[in-house]
Amino acid sequence: MRTVAVVGASLAGLSAARSLRKRGYDGRLVVIGDEPHRPYDRPPLSKEFLAGGMGEADLALETDDEDLQAEWLFGARATGLDRQTRTVRLADGRSVRADGIVIATGAAARALPGTDGLAGVHTLRTLDDARALRDELALGGRLVVIGGGFIGAEVASTAHGMGLDVTVVEAAPTPLAGPLGETMGSVVSALHADHGVRLLCGVGVKGLSGETRVDAVLLEDGRTLPADLVVVGVGARPCVDWLEGSGVALENGVKCGADGRTSLAGVVAVGDCANWYDPVAGIHRRVEHWTGARERPDAAVAALLSGGAAEPGLPKPPYFWSDQYGVTIQFVGHSAGADSVTVEEGSPDDRSFLAVYRRAGHPVAVLGMNQLRLFTRWRKQLAAATTFPAMSAL
Amino acid sequence: MIPACRLADLPRGEAFRLDIDPPISVFHTDDGEVFAIDDTCTHQDASLADGWLEGPEVECPLHASKFDLRTGAVDAPPAKLPVRTHQVLIEDGVIYVQPSTDAPNLPPCVASRLAGGAA
């Protein structure tokens, strides 16, 4: 392999580039990023960076003396992949021909239909999004967050800390029920009320009002929420449009094997855009967590360099964290399919507890609130259990 | 030399945190080795004693950067700077730590707190 192109220059792309060099690949390495910035860390964008406690230099993912001997193309959006010539076409007319390709184009924040061009309406995914939102939050006022998921909840928490009047609107009856289940979703989202942030559940958004700038959020039940600023946190869609017609199989992102290989030889996919096969569960899962974007590229790179001869390991249970209102929330595993959830330590009322999700008596997921030490032990235990073959029969 | 704890009281796979400023943690690895490093992750205010000890490495309990207990080196982001390592001596079953005289690499929030003098 003489040229490898990594398409995507965020955590998954950078991790792939690092793994290529670490695994001895010494050929030409081209990293293509659609944003104008060098790789940066996204989690602080809804927290410390937004609040102003962390600057742009602190977000850098590369170390000062790091040199991957790569050609970096920034502000270069991939628009197509030609399978015959193995060429990545870019929006600016350039193209990169490569023997191996790592797809790491991530996901983009979903917008609310019909809100284009209305000032004061934000999504939060990129550094540029965060800069724009930070500047407006600094003016204060009334913020309505549409979507009670993790991004929405973190923005609400940060904005509340900056003195804004905050309301969160969630279409589902319980926020976070997808990742955490109903019971724990309501426990975690109770943090809003603890801090005087209004949470409206089970009501959809009909639209926004305002001429050039948003002035209110209109709810489907007829209520009107006055707003100086709106943040839309309704999830993300994988950025794989550029692969249409390329021969790379797409299904909820890029459809991949258990080692990140796609339907095209010499092409792997990692990070938020990649829908990897989970051999333990026997289904594909597109995991949108920071930890997966950091850890999985190494397996994909091993598969790419070996032509698929490398034996893929079993996936670690996915792990994510969230910081809201000074509380550290940690979750590992899959809550879907659990038939029970029990609090094993502490108390939800104290906002400090550890809960274990089980299926047929076996732990499948763990949630911690301000329980770092105990959570780490459970996380370790769960990882060990998942890689134990008998578990795959569950 | 600062006495930390008795070796017999620190099972393999466990850590003991010395509450000095900045805190230092002593780790007893599964292989039976004992190491001391700064307890605070260089990325954010998290105690590495609460972390995941595996071989000669400890993984931060928050964001999964791993630190090599032997050298203090960090493997991957979000942390970018190493932690300090400290000399360890075991005498008569007691673990002693000789704190390093190097400047610590504390995360931005902790560093500013220490500089401000307020706890």
From TrEMBL, chain A:
Enzyme nomenclature, EC number: 1.18.1.3
InterPro entries given in the database record: FAD-oxidoreductase/Apoptosis, FAD/NAD-bd_sf, FAD/NAD-binding_dom, FAD/NAD-linked_Rdtase_dimer_sf, Reductase_C
Highest taxon above the source species: Bacteria
All copies of domain Reductase C-terminal, residue ranges: 319-390
The keyword Oxidoreductase is assigned to this record: yes
The entry's keywords: Dioxygenase, FAD, Flavoprotein, Oxidoreductase
Domain FAD/NAD(P)-binding: 3-294
Assigned GO CC terms: cytoplasm
Pfam families attached to this UniProt entry: Pyr_redox_2, Reductase_C
Protein name as it appears in the record: Benzene 1,2-dioxygenase system ferredoxin--NAD(+) reductase subunit
Taxonomy of the source species: Bacteria, Bacillati, Actinomycetota, Actinomycetes, Kitasatosporales
UniProtKB/TrEMBL annotation, chain B:
Stated name of the protein: 3-phenylpropionate/cinnamic acid dioxygenase ferredoxin subunit
UniProt-recorded Gene Ontology molecular function terms: 2 iron, 2 sulfur cluster binding; dioxygenase activity; metal ion binding; monooxygenase activity; oxidoreductase activity, acting on paired donors, with incorporation or reduction of molecular oxygen
Key words of the record: 2Fe-2S, Dioxygenase, Iron, Iron-sulfur, Metal-binding, Oxidoreductase
Occurrences of domain Rieske (ranges): 2-97
Presence of keyword Methyltransferase: no
Record-linked InterPro entries: Rieske_2Fe-2S, Rieske_2Fe-2S_sf
Keyword Cytoplasm part of the UniProt annotation: no
Membrane-spanning ranges: none
Pfam families named in the record: Rieske (PF00355)
